Amino acid sequence: MRLHGQVSIITGGAQGIGLAIAARLAAEGSAVVIADLNAEGAERAARTLSESGPAALAVGIDITSEEGRARLVSAALERHGRIDVLVNNAGILPRVPLMEVTPEVWHRTMQVNLDAAFFCSQAVLPTMRAQGRGRIINISSMSARTGGQASPPHYATSKTGLVGMTRALARVVGAWGVTVNAVAPGMIDTDMLAALTPEQRQWWLDQIPLARLGTPEDVAGAVAFLASDDASYITGATLDVNGGYFMI
Ligand code: NAD
């Protein structure tokens, strides 16, 4: 119960890694606010989590919308009066080959994966600053380390941007008592990997030292650590959760 009495916002929390993060933070004692484009999925997730922990709140928004982000922060503050943790997890992976990437694909990828993480952070920072404490955790990707291998350049670029943004924000907001860190998951078994063929899946299993794909719970454990007081002197860092596939 390292997060007892805290309030956490998780974007993209309706399914996959975001849902596992929400469940883990709730198990650590945090009230959770799930923000997702899939309003019905967010409601379902919040109902399920509320059965075994503190009441979870669902907010159906597109995180690329300024109005949506304002609604998210208001909903969290109206319900709980504080925001301790923001997990910028929502992301998209448009599987478009390099020479077919249009400006629309490029911009949408940046807007969801990078711009929205910046503006969601900006939206919660006044509250965290007033509290004198906060945690921002950005879900990047192993593609930020490798240049992308299982993913195309527009996605890898957006996730590499998140690592740089993590460092840049950490520098500015450290004096406010806010830490900013990233988690770079490797191959995690969610809908995002549904496009892998059995042969591709086996190729990855052969390359990963721990000889398995990651689970959403593997990522959630790293996020819970970074959200907790155990990580109070860690900021600007990117934590690799990839079974050892990429090491620095
Ligand atoms: P997923 O597709 O299963 O879930 C993503 C969630 O984000 C969905 O619920 C979706 O509705 C939501 N979302 C998408 N766009 C949104 C928007 N504009 N506004 C609000 N919500 C939006 O993906 P996942 O595998 O759980 O991935 C979660 C995060 O982890 C993503 O940022 C992804 O890039 C990253 N990641 C995943 C893997 C992997 O192997 N699965 C690896 C590295 C990084």
Describe this structure in words.
The chain is of the alpha/beta class and 248 residues long. The chain contains 8 helices and 7 strands, in the order E-H-E-H-E-H-E-H-E-H-H-E-H-H-E. It has helices at residues 16-27, 39-52, 66-80, 103-131, 143-146, 153-173, 198-207, 216-227, and strands spanning 7-11, 31-36, 57-60, 85-88, 134-139, 178-185, 238-241. It has a 7-stranded parallel β-sheet with strand order 3-2-1-4-5-6-7, with helices on both faces. Strand 2 (31-36), helix 2 (39-52) and strand 3 (57-60) form a beta-alpha-beta unit. Helix 1 packs across helix 8 (216-227). The longest helix is centred in the middle third of the chain and has 29 residues, at 103-131. It is globular, with a radius of gyration of 17 Å. The model has no long low-confidence stretch (mean pLDDT 97). Bound molecules: nicotinamide-adenine-dinucleotide. The site of nicotinamide-adenine-dinucleotide has 30 residues, from helix 1.
